[in-house]
Amino acid sequence: MAEKTHEEHITSWLNGEITDQDLSQQIGTDHTLKYQQILAEVDTWTPDNGEIFDAATITAPAAKSRTFPIWSSLAVAASVFTLIAIGFWYFAQQQDSVVHVAGRGEIKTIDLPDGKSTVTLAPGAIISWLPDDWAETNRALSLEGKAYFDVEPGSPFAVNATNGTVEVLGTTFTIDQFESSLEVVCYEGRVRATNLKGTDVTVNAGEGYRYHEGTWESLPPTYNEPTWINGKSSFHKAPLTQVLANLQQHYEINISDTAINTERRFTGTIPHDNLQVALQLVFEPLGIRYTLQGKQLTLSE
Amino acid sequence: MSKDSVCEERVFQAVHEQHATSLRNFLYYKFGNLEKARDFAQEAFIRLWNNCSKVPFEKTRSYLFTIGNRLFLDDTDHQKVVLKFEKRQNLTESQSTTNPEHLYREEEFKERLEAAISALPEKQREVFLLSRIDKLKNKEIAETLDISIKTVEKHIATSLKTLREKLDELSNLNL
């Protein structure tokens, strides 16, 4: 084996494989002591003893998403104080909020704090709740995206969705949202769905309603679990925007749809595990051409 | 993703706790401007928060370092790197009294060492300081900078040797 270099001796010493004495023998006491002095000095350093910025200043909704030039130390001190104050306030308000997220391509079932009800999140959906609310027997949730709920009877159960509110007593149902539309399908029991304008509709077991372009449209009867939980998505006269949002989330692709008319409707069932088949099923009947490059899907007439 | 989603405030807090200082320090070692290092580190965290759903938990550290680095590269106002350090306030007894024998004279030693470190090639400087000041393990440095552990070891040893040579040169000049 070749003779070790000066640097290799240093590495062995730093890694604790040889002692100070060993290093002195190899490269001399003078060098060893100098290295020790350099390291002992640098080891005590820090660029700055001051506090690093607070994470709460970022997660607070009021936090600005850019940094500012420094006008004067007074202004900076004042703004830092304000941000920290907002941070503390926000944190005190939000500390107990529980959040669950389903990643793209991921379906996730979560037990709700009443110990009996569950929610199944479609890819990209976010659900959150305040345990304090649930302790007071007010079962309230916030939902972004699409989810299927299995609710055990009990105290009032309400989902504040981005595009409306759905209240129930005990039932199973799915909420789907795309753009500003809301779709609710009820499998058991009965729910009331209210859109952001305050118009409501009562959805009985087996019924489904979609609020799209200002009206509630009824969907054909369904009694089983939603198909999307079992690897397929079914659509009935669904706006193309809803189908595209679904493809995007399940297959983790980006879709460029500017060149086509997205107001057309699609009826059919598409798989979640075969993109080629899904694309064929959706676009061929509608006469839409598509090209897939990597994760980018481009549509044209 | 599941419960490790960065979109959850508690997870984000933990990520911040773990990486904020070493990101700020890394940017300082690399570009030599403490104020900007702090601003850009903060900006990187803001972008992480705004894109939290797109960044898987395991990728957060390399995401933060990549963004911080890019912010500096996009910033046109590059200066010569002149690093200055403070003594850490929370030093323990053993850390402050390690070496019995000082061959370099105490006066001006800190300034000379700072100058010698500032003059190191960028990669060596980053690795050396992340190792000594931030006390990162070689494996952690390798993962952060996407280089091999061998390279990390080599950078540290070479830095140390270069620093000694530089300090010897400076003390000889002053004799």
User: Which stretches of chain B of 5+ consecutive residues score pLDDT under 50?
Assistant: none
Largest sheet of chain A: 7 strands, mixed
Broad shape of chain A: elongated
Assembly form of the protein: heterodimer
Share of residues in helices of chain A: 25-40%
Under CATH at level 1, the class of the largest domain in chain B stands as Mainly Alpha
Measured distance between first and last alpha carbons of chain B: 61 Å
Radius of gyration of chain A: 29 Å
The CATH topology of the largest domain in chain A corresponds to Jelly Rolls
Instruction: Assign the CATH topology of the largest domain in chain B.
Output: Arc Repressor Mutant, subunit A
Shape-level CATH architecture of the largest domain in chain A: Sandwich
Q: What is the tally of helical segments of chain B?
A: 8
Find the count of extended strands of chain B (DSSP E, 2+ residues): 1
* Parts with pLDDT < 50 across at least 5 consecutive residues of chain A: 62-76, 79-95
Number of helices of chain A: 8
Work out the radius of gyration of chain B: 18 Å
* Amino-to-carboxy terminus distance of chain A: 69 Å
The best one-word shape of chain B is: elongated
Q: Biggest sheet of chain A, strands in spatial order?
A: 2-5-6-8-9-12-13
Q: What is the residue-averaged pLDDT of chain A?
A: 80
Most extensive interface, chain pair and sizes: A-B, 50 and 65 residues
